[in-house]
Amino acid sequence: MSREVTLVSEQEKQVQYEYIEKVKEKVALLEAKLSRKPTFCVVTFGCQMNARDSEKLTGILKTVGYEESDSEYSDFVIYNTCTVRDNANQKVYGRLGALGTIKKKNPSMRIALCGCMMQEQSVIDKLKKSYPFVDLVFGTHNIYKFAQLLFDMFESDRMVIDIWKETDKIVEELPVDRKYHFKSGINILFGCDNFCSYCIVPYVRGRERSREVQDIIKEIKGLVEDGVVEVMLLGQNVNSYGKNLEHPVSFAGLLREIEKIEGLERIRFMTSHPKDLSDELIQTIKESGKICRHLHLPLQSGSNNILKAMNRKYTREQYLELAEKIRREIPDISLTTDIIVGFPGETAEDIDKTIDVIREVQFDNAFTFIYSKRTGTPAAAMENQVPEEEVKTGFDRLLKEVQKAARQRAGKLTGMVMPVLVEEINEHDNSLVTGRLSNNTLVHFKGGTELIGKIVSVSLDESKGFYYFGRMEG
Ligand code: SAH
Ligand code: SF4
Ligand code: F3S
Question: How many C-alpha atoms does 130 have within 13 Å on its Cβ side?
């Protein structure tokens, strides 16, 4: 199957490059009309996968002649949406309403929507009915067709809608515009086959598809030549990478290949599903000089009843054993997690069990989410939805524990000298720069723009809880 995918993709790629040329002409006409370069603004909601997709959108928009802006008063505004929780959707509707008002004053303005939310029929119905001023709507499976869709939008005076239910295509090598010159996300697999009962991602991102090892390596080598020192391998469940390739490869096997790339300094990845985290992976991280000391390992719940109803396919005992093994083998690793509060049927005792796990594992950080009912998922049809008040009480209790554990773990590196990848000038004090340790903790220290993108040794003088103040050595 994979061979055919590559062939189809090659043809598709050519078609898209032809459309890029055609859209350039349209944008040139617009530029002549406006007597200035038209501007665009990409607004990203959701996860790192969406952030990476937005770099692809930006790449195309710059190639066809638009100029980037961070203002929604632009000639082309696109929202790359998320639908993992309902509040993500509400944010989009709210901002879209405001955008409609802006468009009334700028008749040559065009508005596009894409991303996970667009894969839901109810969203499309609502857009048609209440937001008719939107010019272009497309989903997650046909984002590679963006140039062609832009062309269709210029040709049409009505809302252009193109949503695919599924795809087996992976189209490579279209323009990408990276947000940071020194680090980049890389998709290694698309979609998700896990169907956790609360989660909408498998419905909006489709079936799991792994990219070929050589395509990933080729992309990373190209990035390294272009100045990238850190990559973040992206997938909803990176641990199941490669299982469905014609010649199956394990995620650990892929990591070992990436490790060999000269000039690449750091490797990160997101997200690991506990059920598929192998001993081989733990050993590979342990032996690696490049894989960062950070593992995001979503727990979701510490109660076996809830884990079962969530279809997570592991028990609290298995999770605890895994966390213990990871900490034993790689003592300097930082462990972070996701927890959902208020899943249907969750009781105060279930929350107590989650709190027990938090106390035992001592996560370096945990993201706690209030359960959000997603239409079409099995959990949405469950009868025992938890009343809001109870959820709030549980959420507050959990948050306290999470913060307590994080405080206990914080500061453990004080006094040590460690490598930091400098990412930017400090937001609040421009005599400082901000960077990250291998374990993902932020460090602030005196320095200037010339350090951005470099890995330097920093003495971690003072812990401030979630970050350190340091001093550059040498
Ligand atoms: N693929 C990743 C997670 C992707 S979504 C994984 O399996 O770990 C990121 C996080 O959002 C999840 O870990 C979960 O904690 C949360 N989440 C997903 N669906 C949710 C829902 N319906 N309500 C609340 N939180 C949810
Ligand atoms: Fe959602 Fe579960 Fe897939 Fe993560 S693994 S994206 S939580 S279905
Ligand atoms: Fe959201 Fe889609 Fe990511 S639903 S979390 S943007 S995969």
Answer: 11
Q: Give the DSSP H or E segment for 29.
A: helix 2-34
Q: Which of 425, 460, 462, 461 is nearest to 439 (CA)?
A: 460
The ligand 2 atom nearest the CA atom of 273: 5
CA 82–ligand 3 middle distance (angstroms) = 5
Ligand 3 pocket check for 49: Cβ under 6 Å: yes
For residue 44, give the nearest of 30, 54, 32, 56 by alpha carbon.
54
For residue range 17-73, list pLDDT tens digits in order: 999 999 999 999 999 999 999 999 999 999 999 999 999 999 999 999 999 999 999
pTM across the whole model: 0.94
Measured distance CA(27)–CA(64) in Å, rounded = 7
Instruction: List, in sequence order, the alpha helices (H) in 73-140.
Output: 86-105, 121-130
Q: Which residues contact 42 (CB under 8 A, 6 or more apart)?
A: 54, 57, 58, 61, 78, 80
Length of the chain: 474
3-class secondary structure, 376: coil
Paired residues of 339 in beta bridges:
300, 368
Whether 198 is in the pocket of ligand 1, judged by its Cβ within 6 Å, is yes
Q: Is the CB of 372 under 6 A from ligand 1?
A: yes
Give the closest residue to 330 by CA, choosing from 287, 290, 298.
287
50 CB near ligand 3 (under 6 Å):
yes
Percentage of the chain lying above the pLDDT 90 cut = 91
pLDDT digits (tens, 9 = 90+) for 168-218: 777 777 888 998 999 999 999 999 999 999 999 999 999 999 999 999 999
For residue 422, count CB atoms less than 10 angstroms from its CB and return exposed for 0-12, middle for 13-18, buried for 19 or more.
buried
Q: Which atom of ligand 3 is nearest to the CA of 116?
A: 2
Distance (Å, whole) CA 460 – CA 474: 14
| Nearest by Cα to 174 from 144, 194, 197, 138 | 144
> Cis (ω within 30 of 0) for the bond into 271?
yes
Taking CA atoms only, the protein residue closest to ligand 3 atom 3 is 47
Answer for the pair 387, 148: CB distance below 8 angstroms, yes or no: no
Write the CB contacts of 69 (distance below 8 Å, at least 6 apart in sequence).
Answer: 39, 40, 41
Q: How far is the CA of 281 from the centre of ligand 1 (A)?
A: 23
Taking the CA of residue 50 as reference, the ligand 3 atom at the shortest distance is: 6
